[in-house]
Amino acid sequence: MFKWLLILLGAIAFYQWLKAKQRAMHLAQQSSVRQSPPLAESMAQCDFCGVYLPWGVAIHLEGRHYCSNDHFHRVDEQGWIGAALWRESPNQDLRPEGVVPDLVVIHHISLPPGEFRNRVSTANIVDFFQNRLNPALHPYFAEIANQKVSSHFLISREGELIQFVSTQRKAWHAGISSFLGRDKCNDFSIGIELEGDGETPFEASQYQSLRNLVDALGSRYPNLHFAGHSDIAPDRKTDPGIHFSWENFQKNTDLPVDRFPFGLHSR
Fold first, then answer.
1. CA dist., res. 72 & res. 168, Å (int)
2. Does the structure show a pLDDT above 70 at 16?
3. Which of 108, 125, 180, 194 has the fewest CB atoms nearer than 10 Å to its CB?
């Protein structure tokens, strides 16, 4: 009887020892969790200036990151704007050595012609500038499918900004052209396409996006002048057309009137 009593007391003691050990381990684990530093937040690097900042603070677009709205809307050293969708075109080449752009050429475009109200027009323009336009989709596409053209920027009807070519390089937008006695305007110009035609007013969102773009370009290239495609190729082109308000454009951007050598009248 005494033997069994000893066994029982030994079992109780072992059980209490085991519970105490488990309790101590649990408390130690809790203490360790409280004392461990929190996991570091993921970091992002600004594509404009290279500074690192917390992921949740950065501005993100298409896998790029920016530390501020200012850098997001600026032209970087490579000639790209963070706020734009980047859809690089193969239709580009180097500017002549030492040439810095000092002219912005305003165009309009719709693919198919006159059907810009259909949102597929924007996608068609992107395909056209990337040499991927399907000629079977529309009779007009079969006529232009083999053309190799591009522009630096497109502003859609909704005001979305798309960039195809670095501003440091030459896009193929002007063709045979002359600006105040200087031929080959592609060499020294930046091309901006507005989605639309010559018979319909442009949207307020497009003018706002154009203003933002011009502000960004002006910070990088302070001596820009502005003209329409029709001004530099009057025998061939009519864009941006009579419904583009040069006067409103000048007021919105607060640019000096002398930056518009062809005047502020619609044409």
1. 18
2. no
3. 180
Angle made by CA atoms 254, 257, 260, in degrees to the nearest 5: 110
The neighbour count for residue 88, using CB atoms within 10 Å, is 14
- How many Å from the N-terminal Cα to the C-terminal Cα in the chain? 117
Tokens of 116: 């810009």
Q: Is 129 in contact with 107 (CB distance < 8 Å)?
A: no
What amino acid positions are annotated as catalytic residues?
193
Q: DSSP assignment of the chain, as one string?
A: -HHHHHHHHHHHHHHHHHHHHHHHHHHHHHHHHHHSPPPPPPEEE-TTT--EEETTTSEEETTEEESSHHHHTSB-TTS-BTTSEE---S-EEEPPTT----EEEEEEE-SSTT-TTSTHHHHHHHHHHTT---GGG-HHHHHHTT-----SEEE-TT--EEE-S-TTEEES-S-S-EETTEE-GGGGEEEEEEES-TTSPPPHHHHHHHHHHHHHHHHH-TT-EEEEHHHHSTTT--TT-TTS-HHHHHHHHT--GGG-TT-SS--
Confidence of residue 196 (pLDDT cuts 50, 70, 90): very high
* Spatial contact of 41 and 56, defined as CB atoms under 8 Å apart: yes
- 260 C-beta neighbours (distance < 10 Å), count: 19
Q: Are 266 and 243 in contact (CB under 8 A)?
A: yes
Residues in the chain, total: 267
Q: Which two tokens stand for residue 29?
A: 């684990």
Average pLDDT over residues 5-34: 45
pTM: 0.84
Q: Which of 218, 217, 212 is nearest to 249 (CA)?
A: 212
